Each structure stands twice: as structure tokens, then as C-alpha cells.
């Protein structure tokens, strides 16, 4: 069974004058939130087997913070498309990964929220309601898919978990 892990980058600093959005760094609280989330992932056994991360600075730094708790670096590749694309683009990245198993995409809103809501047609009602209230920074949605990752654009799934640093 394939599971898609959708991780929104942690809380970032506001852009400095003249700074590109792509280059925004994490806030100190974002680093701590990512570490707390990683600890919850380990505790619950919610661990990806492959990671594709946006190449934006804040997404990379989120993954760096997670790696201090549970090292995923050997499983990780980076894809600039996760910064600039839309929700269908996220599905395309997952489909083209060639991976069936626990795949994690580290990226940005509103794309992650759109993908999660589109795929999570089933699951604990409270979790689904929480997700639909907004995909929080350092939020992780884990969706069990009803088919192979290559067919993700045609699939639906079940929301198995929605973790946030405060609620982990």
C-alpha cells in the first residue's frame, strides 16, 4: 500500500526588503516546531521511505531540523517544481517518483492543503475537519492511497494522521 506524507514547511521569517520569497529562512520557532514534529513522527512510527523536498530555503531548513531528530537525508531528493507548481503539479511529482511505499513531499501551501483535501476522502472525521480548517506550518498529513502512486491523480485515500507541533 502506498502512503503519501504531505509536510508543510515550518514557520518562516518575513521576507527582508529585496529578498526573494524563495530565500526566506525559518524562524527559530519553526526550527523547534519541526523538531517536535519529527519526534512525534518517530514516536508514532510515521516515517517516510522516500522524501522529495522543495528546494526553497525554508523547506530545506525544515527537513534539516527533522534530520537532527531522525535522519532522512539518505532518502531525500530536491525538486524545484514543488516551490513553483500547483496542486496537480504536486500529484505529478508523486506519480513520477516511481515509488510505492511511504513517500513524503515537503512543500508549500496552498498546494499541500489542496492535495490533502482532494485525496483524503475518508478517515477520522475529527482529523479531516482539523485539516480542512487549514494546513498549518509544520503540519503533516499522512494519506493511505487506494492504489499505486503512479495512479495518484485518479485515486482517493484515507487520512491516517494529521500531526501539528502543538497537537503531536
List the helices and strands and how they pair.
Blueprint: E1 3-8, H1 28-44, E2 50-54, H2 57-67, E3 76-79, H3 81-84, H4 87-96, E4 102-107, H5 111-119, E5 120-123, H6 125-132, E6 140-145, E7 157-163
Parallel strand pairs: 1-4, 2-3, 2-4, 5-7
Antiparallel strand pairs: 1-6, 6-7
Structural description of this entry:
The protein has 168 residues and is of the alpha/beta class. The protein has one domain (3-163): 3-Layer(aba) Sandwich (Rossmann fold), CATH 3.40.50.1240. 35% of the residues lie in helices and 23% in strands. The protein contains six helices and seven strands. It has helices at 28-44, 57-67, 81-84, 87-96, 111-119, 125-132; strands spanning 3-8, 50-54, 76-79, 102-107, 120-123, 140-145, 157-163. Strands 3-2-4-1-6-7-5 form a seven-stranded mixed β-sheet. Strand 2 (50-54), helix 2 and strand 3 form a beta-alpha-beta unit. The longest helix is centred in the first third of the chain and has 17 residues, at 28-44. The protein is globular. This is Histidine phosphatase family protein. It holds the Pfam family His_Phos_1.
Rg: 15 Å
Give the percentage of residues in beta strands.
15-25%
Helix content: 25-40%
- Can you tell me the number of structural domains? 1
* Topology-level CATH name: Rossmann fold
> How widely separated are the two ends?
24 Å
What string gives the helices and strands in order?
Answer: EHEHEHHEHEHEE
Oligomer: single chain
Strand order of the largest sheet: 3-2-4-1-6-7-5
How many DSSP E strands? 7
Organism: Oceaniradius stylonematis
Pfam family, one: His_Phos_1
Protein name: Histidine phosphatase family protein
InterPro entries: His_Pase_superF_clade-1, His_PPase_superfam
Amino acid at each position: 500500500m502506498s502512503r503519501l506524507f504531505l509536510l508543510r514547511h515550518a514557520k518562516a521569517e518575513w521576507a527582508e526588503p529585496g529578498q526573494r520569497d524563495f530565500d526566506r529562512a525559518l524562524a527559530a520557532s519553526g526550527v523547534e516546531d519541526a523538531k517536535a514534529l519529527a519526534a512525534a513522527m518517530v514516536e508514532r512510527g510515521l516515517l517516510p521511505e522516500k522524501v522529495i523536498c522543495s528546494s526553497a530555503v525554508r523547506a530545506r531548513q525544515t527537513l534539516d531540523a527533522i534530520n537532527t531528530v531522525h535522519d532522512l537525508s539518505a532518502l531525500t531528493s530536491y525538486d524545484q517544481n514543488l516551490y513553483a507548481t500547483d496542486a496537480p503539479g504536486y500529484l505529478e511529482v508523486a506519480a513520477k517518483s516511481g515509488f510505492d511505499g511511504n513517500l513524503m513531499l515537503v512543500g508549500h501551501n496552498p498546494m499541500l492543503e489542496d492535495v490533502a483535501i482532494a485525496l483524503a476522502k475518508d478517515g477520522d472525521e475529527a482529523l479531516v475537519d482539523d485539516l480542512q480548517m487549514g494546513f498549518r506550518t509544520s503540519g503533516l498529513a499522512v494519506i493511505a492511497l487506494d492504489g499505486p502512486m503512479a495512479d495518484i491523480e485518479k485515486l482517493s485515500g484515507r487520512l491516517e494522521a494529521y500531526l501539528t507541533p502543538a497537537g503531536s
